[in-house]
Design a protein that fits this description.
mainly alpha; globular; 61% helix
Length: 153
């Protein structure tokens, strides 16, 4: 299926990106997944901010589902793979959370109709900033590998 091809692994994503994919999967999984997402937000952010975060996730995912150019293809909750559509979604959230509004808008226009892209980019920023707050203290494991400072090709 278009958009479902594995393009990486969840473990290779930064925390905000991985969170975006996991919450997309949870929301898409139905009422049980949405309840779990709401619980996560409440635990991490408190009841009021958690409620707002869940409302943002619901609006964002509903916008994608209702006005998407096509349905977003996702992998299962327990899958370690990262699908192409999921990666696009994660990159949009991450870009928006970093203040790269034009990039977020460009990616949003790939996901939904152009007239809904501004709303999707705005919701992406809200969710991305929430995920940033939730993952601020999360340390990524490292292998000790250092990225070379020169370009080889």
């Amino acid at each position: 299926m278009r958009g479902g091809a594995a393009v990486g692994r969840l473990a290779d994503l930064e925390p905000v990106e991985a969170g975006a994919v996991m919450y997309l999967r949870m929301w898409s999984d139905g009422e049980g997944g949405r309840t779990d997402a709401a619980s996560d937000f409440n635990i991490a952010l408190g009841s009021e901010a958690g409620r707002v975060a869940m409302l943002t996730l619901d609006r964002l995912c509903s916008l994608c589902a209702t006005y998407g150019r096509r349905p977003l293809i996702r992998h299962g909750l327990g899958c370690a793979c990262l699908g192409a559509d999921e990666n696009c979604f994660a990159q949009m959230i991450a870009a928006a959370s970093e203040g790269a509004r034009e990039d977020a808008m460009m990616i949003a226009s790939l996901i939904v109709r152009p007239d809904f892209a501004p709303a999707l980019a705005s919701l992406s920023e809200e969710l991305g900033l929430t995920l940033r707050r939730m993952t601020a203290g999360f340390k990524m494991p490292t292998t000790g590998h250092q990225t070379p400072s020169t370009v080889l090709h």
